[in-house]
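Q: For a teaching session next week I want to show students how multiple molecules come together into a single three-dimensional assembly. I've collected the sequence lines for a complex. Could you give me the predicted C-alpha cells for the whole thing so I can convert them for display?
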Amino acid sequence: MTNDERRHDVAVIGAGGAGSMAHLRAVLNGDDSVIFTGDPTTKRKGRSTWVTHVDNIPGMHELGRPITAAANGTLKWIAADETLNHNHTVVKAAVTKVDRDGDDGFVLHWSEKGEARSLRARFVILATGIMDVQPEIGGSIKPILPFANRGDVHY
Ligand SMILES: Cc1cc2nc3c(=O)[nH]c(=O)nc-3n(C[C@H](O)[C@H](O)[C@H](O)COP(=O)(O)OP(=O)(O)OC[C@H]3O[C@@H](n4cnc5c(N)ncnc54)[C@H](O)[C@@H]3O)c2cc1C
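A: Of course. Below is the structure for the complete assembly, covering every listed component.
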C-alpha cells in the first residue's frame, strides 16, 4: 500500500553530484522525477561532504562544500523554473527499502517523523555513491568490495 497513488516516472536515490544530475536530466526530458536527498547518516557517508574545496574549477574556490553546494543549486534552479518544477519532487529522507511493484516498476519506502511512507516509480536510479556499508540483497550481504563495511574513506 503506498501513501501516494501518483506513480512517478523516475525515482533517484541520493542527491550528490550524480543523483542531482540524473534528476535534472529526467526533468529536462519531461519525466516526472522524485529525488531522495538522504538523511544525516547517509549524508555523513556521502563523498561530497568530504570535499571542502575544489582548486581546479573557477567559481568553486570560495565555496565551503563545493560539490554539495552545486548539487543543492541544481535542485533550487529546477524548483524556480515554472516550465520544469511540475515534474520535480524532493523528499528529504533516506530510502530504507525498494520492492518490485508487480511486473512493472518499484515501490520505495522511507520513514518521516516515525511514520512509514512509500511511493511508486517506474524506474529507479541508485546514486548513493560508494557507501562503506553494503546493502542487504535478498536477505544477505555478499562481499562485493573486500574493504567495505569498515567505515573508511575511499578515493
Ligand atoms: C576526501 C575527498 C576529496 C575529494 N575531492 C574531490 C575534488 O576535489 N574534486 C572532485 O571533483 N571530486 C572530489 N572527490 C570525489 C567526489 O566527492 C565524488 O566523486 C562525488 O561526490 C561522488 O558523487 P556521488 O553523487 O556519486 O556520491 P556522493 O557524493 O557520495 O552522494 C551520495 C548521496 O546519496 C545519499 N544517499 C545514500 N544513501 C541514501 C539512501 N538510502 N536514501 C537517500 N539518499 C541516500 C547521500 O546522502 C549522499 O548525498 C573527493 C572525494 C573525497 C572522499
